[in-house]
Amino acid sequence: MALRPPPARFPLPAVSPLPDHLPVTPFIRPSRGEVRLPGSKSLTNRALLLGALCREPVTLTGALASEDTHLMAEALRRLGGRVDADGTNVRISGQENALRGGAAELFVGLAGTAARFLTALCAAAPAGLYRLDGVPQMRRRPMQPLIQALRQLGADIRCPGEEGFFPIEIHARGLAGGRVDLDPRESSQLLSALLMVAPLARAEVEIRLTGEVRRPFVDMTAALLTRFGQPAPVWRARNLIAVPPHPAYAPSGGTCGIEPDATAASYFLALPLVAGGTLSLPGVLPPGTGLQGDAQFIRVLQACGLEVTAGAGSLRVAAKPGRPRATRADFSVFSDTFLTLAAIAPLLDGTTRIEGIAHTRKQETDRVAGMAQELRRLGQEVREEEGALEITPRPLRADQIIDTHGDHRFAMSFAILGCHDLRGDGRPWLTLANPGCCAKTFPGFFAVLEELRRGSLTS
Questions:
Q1: Which active-site residues does the annotation give?
Q2: Cis peptide before 247 (omega within 30 of 0)
Q3: Shortest CA distance to 123 belongs to which of 209, 225, 208, 200?
Q4: What is the CATH number of the domain that holds 142?
Q5: Residue 79 pLDDT exceeds 70
């Protein structure tokens, strides 16, 4: 079974096409300006799914338009609902016509959130035959713990290929409820997917976790559930969560606001450490004040020498005088940001140690091995462990082409390193292969970066 990508009916931002190989132009003056970030991908795709479960139309404000959210929106259309986008406002309607039987084929590309969330949604449907597939790389991403948990709740899920991986076929008949076991170590998305549809079960769902879970994304899911009128999941023990049946989903006022993406913010938070200067990031919240755990990365950069000032609805960041310092940090609960620190580690004073990243070997690519490979390409000393990297700066090797491994976070992280004026004359010294992969979560990234660079020349 091989499904074709859906047409682009969820509008993406109008950005200039990128070449196959993009030389990164360094900043020759300190960075200056304001960075308006797109909405959170994690929040947008969760809110899209929860909106599809409502009985009345729902509007998302500040939503992200990217490949991952396009795939999610198109899948919801194929399930019978309507998703209409007007800039960053997205309206979800027609829920009464969705998931009412029939057959649908859903293509998820390489979007882990769409894959896990849609699997749970289709399994919870009262009827219908649903086939889900993605790109070949998606067929290697872990699905088995979620599939097994849904089967324990009464779902009929079949794997035509390798057991526990895409493609899958779901013969929907609703979820019965009861106790299930779930191992969430490979991805917290597995638990989030289950939590979002558990209220649709005919009886209480009790989830026993058989491994450690990265709580920030689970807490994000729980917070969104309450915004959509659901009781908060109850932690009966450290590894036991209960979700009562409660099929009525409805956000207050029929709207849900989406925060700017904290992971996307990581690149611009790091830029002053690379190029100097000061940046303002409207809407970005300090750690612990918003829904996104990746905001904790701000504390890591503060340890490196970033000065952070929280104002009215904005963060102001600046590099302290002197060379930024290396640090040691555990990224187990905000691992999407580790690549940002790893990429700029060659510019830090001392050895950087990054821990808690073993699970990232099973994401878009093996991020641990890939990062070690690209840093060594640049002449750096790298010690690679199963769940850690140690990076000791060595003279940067110029005129290298970075393999982004088809991973948006490689492209954006190394783009920030390339902003360093290595030669001292503004000439590019680092080239990115396949920079367009950043469209997965941030289609306009390079346009924003270039606007900042040009702005720094005139300020």
A1: 336
A2: no
A3: 200
A4: 3.65.10.10
A5: yes
Query: Distance (Å, rounded) from C-alpha 77 to C-alpha 386?
Result: 40
- 248 with 294, same domain? no
> For residue 7, is it within any domain?
no
Please indicate, yes or no, if residue 137 is contained in any of the structural domains. yes
Phi/psi for 435 (5° steps) reads: -65, -20
The pLDDT of residue 313: 86
pLDDT, residue 16, reads: 74
Mean pLDDT along residues 102-126: 97
**Which residues make beta-bridge pairs with 92?**
58, 83
178 phi and psi angles, rounded to 5 deg: 110, -170
| Banded model confidence at residue 311, pLDDT cuts 50, 70, 90 | confident
Counting other chains too, the contacts that 300-306 makes at CB distance below 8 Å and 24 or more residues apart are 300/327, 300/329, 300/337, 300/341, 301/269, 301/270, 301/273, 301/341, 303/327, 303/329, 304/273, 304/341, 304/348, 305/273, 306/269, 306/270, 306/272, 306/273
Record the pTM.
0.95
- Domain carrying residue 216: 41-257
The verdict on 306 and 170 lying in the same domain is: no
Q: Is the dihedral of CA 112, 113, 117, 118 positive or negative?
A: negative
pLDDT tens for 363-411 read 999 999 999 999 999 999 999 999 999 999 999 999 999 999 999 999 9
Cα within 13 Å of Cα(434), Cβ side:
10
Token pair listed for 185: 């170590």
- Sequence-distant (6+) residues with CB within 8 A of 46 are 113, 117, 192, 196, 220, 221, 224
Q: Write down the pLDDT at residue 14.
A: 59
Q: Any idea of the CA torsion for 423, 425, 430, 432, to the nearest 10 degrees?
A: 170
- The sheet carrying 240-243 orders its strands as 178-182, 205-209, 240-243, 234-237
